[in-house]
């Protein structure tokens, strides 16, 4: 396990150092380029930010539960080695390229979404369809993570109490730093001290637990507020402070791996096909999204991070660096299942529980009891999910405003947020049943379609990045089109298979609409490539 982790970290560092540097040169990134946070500062969305604060926000937003859930499901089905190879190769050559490219494109188009590039270099129809596809994909994101977070809050009151405290402390921290001139270091130390005390008290004394419906309502209200409030007041400081949880989890995980003396007992390879998931091709590349490549990352990069980036020279640090950090989390998640034997009762547990239990075992090295370490692991997973929830809702609001051509007024922010929250609320209140009549949690139905839709979004983004690169004189575009073709084939294959084998309901109906939209966008993009010529197309 130690040798595997060392090799993985070395490869990820080399990817960041050398391939990330190559991408900077290939895109002619210049420190003197203007950035939207400076040219369009508005104090709400466009806010120049310290790169370490922004990395915390970006990393927390992109991570979600994906780099934990996906690798554990894939390793349980196919073995840990196929999962590890996809995480490492995918991150270095596809995920890092995807995230960095989306960020660069956005800062060169006034902080707007990748869809703006589709309008500029393809046509207005593709632009509109891509925005609609993205918005529907975000509906899946909000639905899945709201349901998972509510489940965690119901089952672990200590996690819910600490998460609520995080929100309150973050708002005070953001206000103190941006409105009262508090220093970043002092504010961070004070905030983390309060949070550590709150974690301890929540672990020792739990308040009565609320039911799941109540937590879903609270989470949707929080998402609504996070979408419309200034980014500096809640979203950015909460994600920044949450990142320390994630960094602590990485430190505990790596410490346990290197010094815990744990042996690998999970098989490196199990099978080429799994009855519950399907064949390794294409479903390995769908099951592991975050941690290798994820379309949602492009929405964060071009939705919030590009509006806060202080200099183009920081794009690799935020975009490619954030992807590498997420891959490290995925590697640690893999190690938590590598500790288990196939006969271990824990193998049938939910992925979040396996990860938390593994982190609990790792934490014994620092004197933290296994139970306390497990609670901390669940808190980390919850922090991942909550930061994805708030960012996804805000990005959905941006996209609806862009789709409608609305000014960024409070009225349009309220309306776009209300619509973006309404559909997840509807899906979360559907009664979904298995063939035997038992009720299925919403996230279990949505997760497979969320995964394939997320990867299909990554494929579409790579196609648009390729067209942008061709039209702006980027020299080496083959490194973009090859991953774009691979991801397009794998995701359309997977989505078609899933829709063919699934029963009809509102969730699969959205999946069918997404497939049609994706095929149209890809067709329009192919026509643009065939037409050739480095020219910008009309925007209307």
Structure, explained:
The chain has helices at residues 2-26, 36-39, 51-63, 66-78, 80-107, 115-121, 124-155, 157-179, 184-204, 212-228, 235-259, 280-287, 295-303, 315-338, 351-363, 370-404, 410-428, 442-471, 478-501, 506-531, and strands at residues 273-274, 278-279. By secondary structure, the protein is mainly alpha-helical. A hairpin with a 3-residue loop joins strand 1 and strand 2. It is globular and about 60 Å long. The protein starts with a helix and ends in a 9-residue tail after the last helix. 55% of the residues are buried.
The proportion of residues forming helix, as a percent range, comes to: over 70%
In whole angstroms, the N-to-C terminal distance is 55 Å
Q: What class would the helix/strand composition place it in?
A: mainly alpha
Cα radius of gyration in angstroms: 22 Å
What is the typical, i.e. mean, pLDDT? 89
Overall number of strands = 2
What is the N-to-C succession of helices and strands?
A: HHHHHHHHHHHEEHHHHHHHHH
Largest sheet: 2 strands, antiparallel
Low-confidence stretches: 534-540
Numbering strands along the chain, what is their spatial order in the largest sheet?
1-2
- Which outline best applies? globular
Q: What fraction of residues sit in β-strands?
A: under 5%
Tell me the number of helical segments per DSSP (H or I, 4 or more residues long): 20
């Amino acid at each position: 396990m130690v040798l595997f982790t060392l090799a993985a970290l070395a490869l990820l560092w080399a990817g960041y150092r050398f391939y990330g540097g190559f991408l900077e040169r290939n895109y002619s990134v210049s420190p003197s380029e203007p950035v939207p946070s400076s040219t369009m500062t508005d104090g709400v969305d466009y806010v120049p930010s310290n790169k370490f604060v922004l990395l915390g926000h970006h990393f927390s937003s992109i991570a979600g539960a994906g780099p934990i859930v996906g690798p554990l499901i894939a390793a349980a089905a196919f073995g840990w080695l196929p999962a590890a190879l996809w995480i490492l190769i995918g991150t270095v050559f596809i995920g890092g390229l995807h995230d960095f490219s989306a960020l660069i494109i956005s800062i060169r188009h006034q902080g707007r979404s990748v869809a703006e590039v589709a309008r500029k270099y393809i046509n207005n129809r593709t632009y509109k369809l891509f925005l609609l596809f993205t918005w529907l994909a975000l509906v899946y994101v909000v639905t899945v993570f709201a349901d998972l977070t509510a489940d965690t809050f119901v089952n672990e009151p200590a996690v819910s109490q600490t998460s609520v405290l995080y929100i309150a402390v973050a708002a005070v921290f953001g206000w103190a730093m941006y409105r009262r001139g508090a220093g970043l270091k002092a504010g961070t130390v004070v905030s983390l001290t309060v949070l550590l005390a709150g974690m301890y008290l929540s672990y020792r004394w739990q308040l009565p637990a609320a039911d799941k419906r109540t937590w879903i309502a609270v989470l949707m209200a929080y998402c609504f507020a996070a979408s419309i409030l200034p980014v500096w007041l809640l979203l950015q400081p909460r994600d920044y402070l949450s990142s320390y949880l994630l960094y602590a989890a990485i430190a505990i995980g790596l410490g346990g791996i290197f010094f815990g003396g744990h042996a690998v007992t999970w098989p490196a390879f199990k099978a080429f096909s799994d009855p519950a998931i399907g064949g390794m091709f294409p479903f390995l590349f769908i099951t592991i999204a975050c941690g290798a490549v994820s379309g949602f990352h492009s929405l964060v990069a071009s939705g919030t991070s590009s509006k806060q980036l202080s200099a183009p020279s920081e794009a690799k640090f935020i975009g490619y660096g954030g992807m590498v950090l997420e891959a490290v989390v995925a590697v640690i998640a893999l190690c938590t299942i590598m500790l288990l034997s196939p006969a271990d009762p824990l193998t049938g547990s939910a992925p979040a529980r396996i990860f938390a239990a593994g982190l609990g075992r790792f934490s014994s090295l620092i004197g933290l009891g296994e139970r306390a370490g497990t609670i901390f692991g669940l808190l980390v997973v919850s922090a991942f999910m909550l930061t994805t929830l708030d960012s996804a809702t805000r990005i959905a609001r941006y996209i609806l405003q862009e789709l409608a051509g609305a000014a960024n007024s409070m009225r349009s922010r309220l309306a776009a947020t209300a619509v973006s929250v309404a559909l997840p609320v509807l899906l979360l209140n559907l009664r979904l049943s298995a063939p035997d009549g038992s009720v299925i949690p919403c996230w279990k139905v949505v997760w497979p379609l969320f995964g394939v839709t997320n990867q299909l979004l990554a494929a579409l983004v790579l196609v648009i990045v390729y067209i942008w690169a061709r039209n702006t004189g980027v020299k080496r575009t083959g490194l973009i089109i090859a991953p774009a073709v691979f991801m397009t084939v794998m995701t359309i294959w997977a989505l078609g298979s899933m829709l063919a084998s699934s029963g009809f309901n509102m969730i699969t109906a959205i999946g069918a609409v997404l497939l049609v939209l994706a095929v149209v966008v890809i067709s329009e993009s192919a026509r643009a490539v065939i037409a050739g010529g480095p020219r910008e197309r009309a925007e209307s």
